[in-house]
Amino acid sequence: MIAVKLSGRIFDDPALVREYATILSSIEESLAIITGGGSTARRYIEAARSIGANNYFLDMIGIEASRLNAWLLVAALGPDVYPRPATSLEEVVTALGYKRRVVVGGLQPGQSTATVAALVAEAVGARMLINCANIDGVYDDDPSKNPNARKIPIVKASQLAAMLRSNALPGTYELADVWSLEVLRRSKIPMYIVDGRTPNHLLKVLREGANPGSLVLPE
Amino acid sequence: MIAVKLSGRIFDDPALVREYATILSSIEESLAIITGGGSTARRYIEAARSIGANNYFLDMIGIEASRLNAWLLVAALGPDVYPRPATSLEEVVTALGYKRRVVVGGLQPGQSTATVAALVAEAVGARMLINCANIDGVYDDDPSKNPNARKIPIVKASQLAAMLRSNALPGTYELADVWSLEVLRRSKIPMYIVDGRTPNHLLKVLREGANPGSLVLPE
Amino acid sequence: MIAVKLSGRIFDDPALVREYATILSSIEESLAIITGGGSTARRYIEAARSIGANNYFLDMIGIEASRLNAWLLVAALGPDVYPRPATSLEEVVTALGYKRRVVVGGLQPGQSTATVAALVAEAVGARMLINCANIDGVYDDDPSKNPNARKIPIVKASQLAAMLRSNALPGTYELADVWSLEVLRRSKIPMYIVDGRTPNHLLKVLREGANPGSLVLPE
Amino acid sequence: MIAVKLSGRIFDDPALVREYATILSSIEESLAIITGGGSTARRYIEAARSIGANNYFLDMIGIEASRLNAWLLVAALGPDVYPRPATSLEEVVTALGYKRRVVVGGLQPGQSTATVAALVAEAVGARMLINCANIDGVYDDDPSKNPNARKIPIVKASQLAAMLRSNALPGTYELADVWSLEVLRRSKIPMYIVDGRTPNHLLKVLREGANPGSLVLPE
Amino acid sequence: MIAVKLSGRIFDDPALVREYATILSSIEESLAIITGGGSTARRYIEAARSIGANNYFLDMIGIEASRLNAWLLVAALGPDVYPRPATSLEEVVTALGYKRRVVVGGLQPGQSTATVAALVAEAVGARMLINCANIDGVYDDDPSKNPNARKIPIVKASQLAAMLRSNALPGTYELADVWSLEVLRRSKIPMYIVDGRTPNHLLKVLREGANPGSLVLPE
Amino acid sequence: MIAVKLSGRIFDDPALVREYATILSSIEESLAIITGGGSTARRYIEAARSIGANNYFLDMIGIEASRLNAWLLVAALGPDVYPRPATSLEEVVTALGYKRRVVVGGLQPGQSTATVAALVAEAVGARMLINCANIDGVYDDDPSKNPNARKIPIVKASQLAAMLRSNALPGTYELADVWSLEVLRRSKIPMYIVDGRTPNHLLKVLREGANPGSLVLPE
């Protein structure tokens, strides 16, 4: 059992979704796939905020947008997938009792899809979580600002949590947050962070045991 | 009881959604509000089609997009609304048993939101359906092509159905389709078609008994 | 995957239901089976109308009656069937993920079970819809009135739709309606209409590739 | 809060259903109404038995038939009723939180609707259960066989249970069974048994405190 | 298909639960497993009664406690079990369509888990019900009071029902009640009563065809 | 609207539950009440851990235990409460549309009931969260170890989060965690922490505007 998180950004490009669908369909092992909300979520949340919606509704709207992305992936994955996005951890676990692939978006307000990914990985007993992110790995500084920022191949979850708390890495909220790291640690699930814009990095991890991005150890 | 259909296009403009929220909140009578899928639906359906999704999934994705619009309106309508989009006619009817306003998007594949609007209006016993459309009324020809096309103030549903069948009016699928007109006729529900880009037309119908667009008689 | 529509009339005769159960159980291919409401639906709808029920309730009662027929078939089909009637397209699709046979009655007000059959066929990706009807095929005139009416072996869906619109064929509403034909056309699903009172006609279509009634081409 | 059980036989006669709807609508107090399966249930159960269905399915089919009767009553009761039959005790209790009237048919295999009526009465805290039965009261012998059988105006539940166990009263299964009487006893709910073919007996009990049939004391 | 009832008492001892999990996991045949409420149910019901809760809530609380025990067993049974307690007969039957083991606690107020066990056994078509009870069989008198009470190896359900009615066997309510016996009789399901504190008695029945406790014949 | 969190420990003492029921029933304002899992949760989680259950199941079992406590409170609160524990934020929000009081236990694995309380408070728009805890306030050191530990009357959420991170306060996980504090901050909801063993402290906050424990400012 593998858990795969797809950044919401991937869904801005249908060709990329199709590539992922082809790759995911070629994997023999069972898969729980978590989709982010991406630009649709951001656009709708912004609209809702301009209208005065409270945080509960902002988050519900983001969840609904991530489900729209999940529907797109379900439609692309063909007959061997649970035929709708799951809407609770229990549904993910139940559906994987008879289907090899299940797709799920957000689940609850106050929770990033990074956290959903960790909770899903834990619930289904995944041996690893592959996070196809909007960045190609963990950096020691913000690479969009510091040209000397270096990618860190292997990092402990506890170290990454400390980096996140220090706010040294703006914009990495989507990548992982403190809570998701705690879940991965308590259930000893390693997380690979790979570049979501390069779908075959997913296969590199699975087929070659390579680490094309960063590996977060559950320590 | 009034049923109000909001064109999906309205949701491209948050300011317009806010105006509608203000107007709808000012109406004393109970309201069942149906939201279209708009540009989000079109974009996702197009993406799904390019990936090879079948019609069932294309329609489910359109429904999901219309629910995203419904969430936006729910968030804008504040405490006197059923706090999530209904997902079946039974839920609409049940929710209106204790809340004055309920919002609903699409319901089922193979069905336009125009038809959903007619079915909702029938189920809740609405005395009229106000269709805030992407056009300001019914025309005798396609106004985008024929500058001499004239708006028809009053038209029988049977006449409009004949016009739709003759394909003389391209692009009016969203406005009404044959099935939605049959539902309105069998339950004797008049439909006002008004310009969705001018929210106060809704009030003109309700408060002044005016007909700023076209009135479709259930005959 | 095959979709089979059973006319509600079949359920007036338990022996006929048993024959169908035996035949359907002998088919290897996966099956989505749609049951009509028949005389129970008519009797209850008539009662409800005499009491003053509105169209929403009349249709809900017809749906409930078709589910009673669906229960009867489920009970007759034994262990290889999803053990209750499905109540939504999503449930049909999900249940066929692990069971070879699923039974479903009506789904929503304003919809004939002919339309449900077409929508189900589309959703499950059926390669054909076999309509075990209350008549043995499509006629060029009403055979109950015109002794010279001739059965049409092959007809295009567009032609049949035109015939239905012209009202030349009273009582064929159950057989097919305009909307069901549109669904079949858009998803390219051929429909065989066979005599529901002769269960082995179903096998003739499936096993021999014969056309004992009429074939409606999705054109 | 009052619980009213309507014999399934009542639903064979739409005019009788209409009379009950009028009477029930005139009652100010909150109402939980339980409908039996009647002749539709018997006909379908017989058909299912002839097809070889097991007891689970026979009972599910009887439950579904009682829900069809419940739908008919819901349609007749108009806007002040929960707009669909409840399908669990929890739904009955929840629905009575905002609607004055709720209708429910059978709930579970292995359970008479007499027992459902007692459980519903207990769950909603009814001060009495009025059983509009297929007989006008409790008799000391089978009145269809013994012309000297006498109606018993007041009987203790424990006595009635003993009579039921002795099988002295064939055909009274629908009226009450041992389990339903235990529920009424443990929650101290008196049951009036009145003639279901005479709707105003219901009002006699409620408005005049009369006992036109038999009163079963919860002792 | 086998139905196994586990006395709630078993769940007071985690080591015993683990033993049962090991044994149940070793059985090839499909299993429907019913869990009692045990001491947790008793403690909460007593608390609720002291607070003045009515019988509906007392029973719902007992049901919820039996589900807590069911969760514990689900967690112990590993990947080949439906991953949550079922909450209705329909869910039990549906889940056994793709999982070999399903666990269920109580279902409805007014019903012992002994009755749930009989209904589940009937619904799933079990060839026997093995009742791992809080006693090692049926006795001809209360063994806790009469040292000469003798265990009865084989008893007819009708005899046991008569014994239960005579109140000669206090405290056996959990073992079986009149209603559960009627269900077993009507569906011809034999019930073995074995000592729940000795898990391998379950295997003795299944593997050796032995009768280490009492056998209740469905007559 | 007020949100009230009741420590699971409260449910060890039925008399205390009854006191809380009386107090909560006397409050005019709408209430969302969150119950912890307490000793039942701990006992079952320990049992499950000894059997080898994974974290997903440990948490689900804790959630189920908190729902058992929620049932107890629902039973004690009488007719003005939503008649069962809510099981999702959406159900909480929907139920408060027609009932003045709703009770909810845990919602999802990986989440403390402290976090549930914050999310519920946010979703329902509570003006404050009153946390009836297992301690009488926030201390600057562990009061069970350091007799000189001082209670802090007012503390900023950001300060409390820093204290929690520094692990200076063992055992306060139940009181609040970092995530719950973030939710309170983003939605500007103050939290009063009061001694759960002294129910009238709840009234002191509500009626007198007093601060008998600690006030956590959403800053």
From TrEMBL, chains A, B, C, D, E, F:
InterPro entries: AceGlu_kinase-like_sf, Asp/Glu/Uridylate_kinase, Uridylate_kinase_arch/spir. Residues 2-195 form the Aspartate/glutamate/uridylate kinase domain. Its EC number is 2.7.4.22. The keyword Lipid metabolism does not apply. Gene3D superfamilies: Acetylglutamate kinase-like. Keywords: ATP-binding, Cytoplasm, Kinase, Nucleotide-binding, Pyrimidine biosynthesis, Transferase. GO terms for molecular function: ATP binding; UMP kinase activity. It is an enzyme of class 2 (transferase). Pathway: Pyrimidine metabolism; CTP biosynthesis via de novo pathway; UDP from UMP (UMPK route): step 1/1. One of its GO terms (biological process) is UDP biosynthetic process. Belongs to the UMP kinase family. This is UMP kinase. The gene is pyrH.
